[in-house]
Amino acid sequence: MIERDFISQKTKEFYIKQYVESKLKGAGISQIKLKKIPLGEKIIIYASRPSLIVGSKGANIRDLTRVLKQDFKLENPQIEINEVKNPYLDAAIVADRIAGSLERFGSARFKSIGHKIMENVMKSGALGIELLISGKIPGARAKSWRFYQGYLKKCGEIATSGVLKAKTAALLKTGIIGVQVSIMPPGIVLPDHVEIKKELDQVVEETPLVGSVPKDSSTEGKESKRKKTGEKAEKSEKKKAPKKKEIKVEEEKTAKMDEAVENKVNDSQEVEDKV
Predict the structure, then answer these.
(1) H helix or E strand, kind and range, residue 238
(2) Greatest CA span in the chain, whole angstroms?
(3) What class has domain 2-84?
(4) Do the Cβ atoms of 55 and 65 come closer than 8 Å?
């Protein structure tokens, strides 16, 4: 019984989503969520054009709530609309735009449509995109065309959980054309991504030894000044030492000269006395 209730609930949600998407086809619907709340059921619609969902004075929302009550037997359905900020980074909206442009302009211009969509998606900041368009384009034989740009993961956990995927179909005169979109959004962290950090100038601080008393800045400045003054005094004394020696030598020379002169004068006086 529990399994039957679960399956019936999921099938009911699927039919509700299918009806809302068909009713609001040109509104650019990204996804639809259903939640159980105490007051009833809450239907959250994410779309790129919320004004088309609301309609003139809320006419579309009133029609939706009436149909959900009568056909799907919901007690109190409450519809909430959220706007998608960047529609080109949503795979479902991009697939709907490709299908709409193919239905409008035909299969002859599928290449220009694909390249233009890729350019807009990459300008929005996506890391990579892949478009698969399959069907009777441009001739009568069915083919599949692949458009890709940027970087896209094909395997691993990121390929299943990180890459955004969506499928839709465009109904043309020649037949049905399938559109498959895969977008790698910006900001996704890859497992093989490596960041190289720049080297910063690290300031090495002196750590005091165990048992030593840290010195104050004032005492360190005084000691450095004392050392500098002591070194200057030693240098000045070394420079003055040779000058003192030279003065002593000169004084000795003058004393010897004076003695010689006095001896000569004494000799001359003795000669005069004898005469």
Answers:
(1) helix 217-274
(2) 172
(3) alpha beta
(4) no
Element (H, E) at 165: strand 164-171
What are the residue ranges of CATH 3.30.1140.32 in the chain? 89-184
Closest CA to 181 of 79, 92, 54: 92
Q: For the whole model, what pTM was predicted?
A: 0.65
Q: With H, G, I as helix, E, B as strand and everything else as coil, classify residue 214.
A: coil
Alpha carbon of 241 to those of 145, 178, 233, 245, 269: distances in Å? Answer: 100, 106, 12, 7, 44
Determine the straight-line distance between the first and last CA of the chain, rounded to whole angstroms.
Answer: 170
Q: What SS3 class is residue 11?
A: helix
Q: What is the pLDDT of residues 120-174, one digit of tens each?
A: 999 999 999 999 999 988 888 889 999 999 999 988 888 888 899 999 999 988 8
Report the candidate in 62, 76, 116 with the shortest Cα–Cα distance to residue 94: 116
């009436």: which residue's tokens? 66
CATH architecture label of 89-184 = 2-Layer Sandwich (3.30)
Amino acid at 207: T
